[in-house]
Amino acid sequence: MVEKLPRSEGNRIGYEVNDKLSEEEYEEILAEVKDAIEEHGSAKLLIDLSGVSESYAEFDAYEEDLGFYLRHGEDMECYAVVGDDSVMKWGTEASDLVTDTDIEFFDEEDLDKAWEYVKE
């Protein structure tokens, strides 16, 4: 289940993902990011995955995620990933190396720091 976070404003968009993220929900997130890019010229994204089990990667989300940011990286100012999983952290760090988007991983207790990161 995905919930858009109330701190979302303008080109800063945040989502909390609980349990398994479906492909349809993931596509909805990407569509909203594309809309923000079209409306504001860029987007800043925060995804809180701290409530997600290991099933996050079941539908190759990392591959889709990376593909999206390779195509739209110059339009993404930054991307904060919040979680408590070493695989998520590794995936975030690897994506940061190969995309134009500045991508940072934050531990779940640092959610406020992640929001500050996307506000800069």
Automatic annotation (TrEMBL):
A Pfam family reported for this protein in Swiss-Prot or TrEMBL: SpoIIAA-like
Cited Gene3D superfamilies: SpoIIaa-like domains
Name of the protein in its database record: STAS/SEC14 domain-containing protein
Source taxonomy: Archaea, Methanobacteriati, Methanobacteriota, Stenosarchaea group, Halobacteria
